[in-house]
Amino acid sequence: MNIQxxxxxxxxxxxxxxxxxxxxxxxxxxxxxxGKNREDFILNNDINLKHKNLQYFKRLILERATRKPIAYxxxxxxxxxxxxxxxxxxxxxxxxxxxLIEQILKxxxxxxxxxxxxxxxxxxxxxxxxxxxxxxxFGTGIDIxxxxxxxxxxxxxKLQVETRIKLYKSDVDKFxxxxxxxxxxxxxxINKLKLKYLEKDVINFEPKLAxxxxxxxxxxxxxxxxxxxxxxxKNGKFxxxxxxxxxxxxxxLLRNEGxxxxxxxxxxxxxxxxxxSTKI
Length: 280
Ligand code: GLN
Hints:
The protein is α/β, with parallel strands linked by helices. The protein has 11 helices and 9 strands. The strands form 2 sheets. Strands 5-4-3-6-7-9-8 form a 7-stranded mixed beta sheet, sandwiched between helices. It has a two-stranded antiparallel sheet with strand order 1-2.
């Protein structure tokens, strides 16, 4: 069977499962199956597939048909300027989270050496991206999941920033090490009762630990705000990702812990997604 026909059949299988990006997904999985870039076979797609490549492609399509995210099938996700290793043990980096990167780079533009703490570091996409952009910055990442710290370590090596990062397995409540110029966090913030309404790709495959924000969605954010107010230096910046409907509540939490609100930012879908504040 040639590539074109296989991609078409793959697309149809995914369409039957109501996957909106069926054609793109089928092409991406073909690229993976034959070990080429998507661009490389799209113009040259009448060549015949080797049996083992076709089998591999079919397997990938059937997995995707269960709604397993493409990033988990490829074991990678592009974020900001780099490719990150990911697997089922960590949340897949979201384009929306790049808003936090923009803000951190903006507020640290004239800083030389600073210490950053990332609470719930996960794959490391936020902290490692910053360390990669700012070669003199130091980072500390904490996470309750040992498995996600292992992933973060792999990514730190990939981005060659491993000498400037420390990782600790810790609950946010229990961590009490150091003082930081900047703290960043993308904690779990989805209301427990609304988890079931997330897309199947998300809720059936991504770690609940990274999504579940308790009964009001704010239980982890509350802990992160409280802990950050203890661990941040005076005048330090705090950059936090939030749920689309949490802006006002989180602003109140921050003010109660002695933070001044610098700005709130929207994501690509124009939802409130990030709050930048300063410890006063
Ligand atoms: N933005 C993610 C989602 O909607 C949630 C991430 C989080 O809870 N921190 O799937």
